Amino acid sequence: MKFFLRFLKLAALLVCIWLIIPRILGKDKAEDPPEAGDKVGDDIVENAPEESAKAGDIVTTYRTIPVYSNGDNYTMSYGKHFSANQYYYGQKWQCVEFVKRFYHDAFNHQMPNAWGHAIGYYDPTVLHGKLNKDRGMFQFKNGGVTCPQPDDLLVFDFAPYGHVSVISSVRENEIEVVQQNIKGRPRQTYHLEKKDGLFTILAKKKPVGWLRLPPAKLRNPVFPVDANPTLGTAPAP
Fold this sequence. Notes:
Elements: H1 2-25, E1 39-40, E2 43-45, E3 58-62, E4 65-68, E5 80-82, E6 88-91, H2 95-107, E7 131-132, E8 137-141, E9 153-156, E10 163-170, E11 174-178, E12 187-195, E13 198-202, E14 209-212, H3 215-218, E15 231-234
Antiparallel strand pairs: 1-2, 2-12, 3-4, 3-15, 5-6, 7-8, 8-14, 9-10, 9-14, 10-11, 11-12, 12-13
């Protein structure tokens, strides 16, 4: 009987050691979600994941334009979304829906071509600095002579559909973007490299380039840049 009790005590002690040692050594950190400032690949997490955000919740804003959560499944869409004047924003709450709604609501800009996946927003046949007629915006390649600036539309061409976001800030060595349908990262920063007069936005999945509104529209935004952007979650109106 005494031997059996000693065995139970020893087993309990071993279980406690097995649970405690990984925490002391930090081995459980790989299971934790990334936090603000953490580096994931070549990307820096600007916002901690919004674990409680449901599809349709507001997770941040830029120029008072809300960014909505698409929930846990980035492939999901929640129906077509139109403006009051029937301009087609896109599928709720995909990345394209945000950028089209942003330029329409913040700058009164309607893209001539209302259709297409994110990957098609950068036209490789358009020369650097020339007009992308489908989007009504000037196009610049990543790694070219033109520095990105706030309110530019950043395009990633990774398969199958790509990704688009809006540049919200440009600093000496980094940019910040606002975006939809990247869970937990409605705002994200990337390294900006300037070398030999060329500007390159670096990321694990490197963007192909950015688009810019005509100067006349950039000078007349409907809404100012947010002094205190909304962070966190709020239900869609």
